[in-house]
Write a structure and sequence with these properties.
The protein starts with a helix and ends with a helix. The protein is elongated, with a radius of gyration of 18 Å. It has a four-stranded mixed β-sheet. It has helices at 2-16, 31-45, 57-69, 108-127; strands at residues 21-23, 47-53, 73-86, 92-104. The chain is α+β, with helices and mostly antiparallel strands and 128 residues long. It holds the Pfam family Alba. GO terms for molecular function: RNA binding. InterPro entries: Alba-like_dom_sf, DNA/RNA-bd_Alba-like, UCP030333_Alba. Residues 20-71 form the DNA/RNA-binding protein Alba-like domain.
């Protein structure tokens, strides 16, 4: 019985630490940090999962919309839930959670190459 319990525990840990998951905070980093990070993750993994709790949900939705509106991403899945978190006094608190899975668009690589060229041009202009 212990072997089964250990297997289940290891499975949950592996699932919660996906390599293509970005856990967004609304206080730690600016919005475009997450936009650029999501682009990099999509280059590596072809899709990215944006995840947030509570007040950071608005940030995740903004990141996803920026990527979609600029043609970098398509929406694959949106999942909402409520999770129970313990506060400082060890009292359980219900928090809203969202997970948005985005995939690369067909022209993702072209858009990334174009933005890299524009950035290089701007850097060259700034140096001269």
């Amino acid at each position: 019985m212990e072997a089964i319990t250990d297997g289940v525990n290891k499975m949950n840990i592996a699932e919660s630490q996906k390599k293509n998951r970005i856990q967004v905070s609304n206080t730690k980093k600016p919005l475009f940090f997450y936009v650029n990070l999501a682009k990099r993750y999509m280059q590596q993994y072809a899709e990215v999962e944006l995840s947030a709790l509570g007040m950071a949900i608005a940030t995740v939705v903004s990141v996803a919309e920026i990527l979609k509106n600029n043609g970098f991403a398509i929406e694959r899945k949106i999942m909402t839930s409520t999770v129970e978190i313990k506060d400082e006094r060890v009292r359980p608190i219900q928090k809203a959670k969202i997970e948005i899975t985005l995939g690369k668009t067909e022209n993702f690589d072209e858009l990334m190459a174009k933005s890299a060229q524009e950035r290089e041009a701007a850097d060259a202009e700034a140096q001269s």
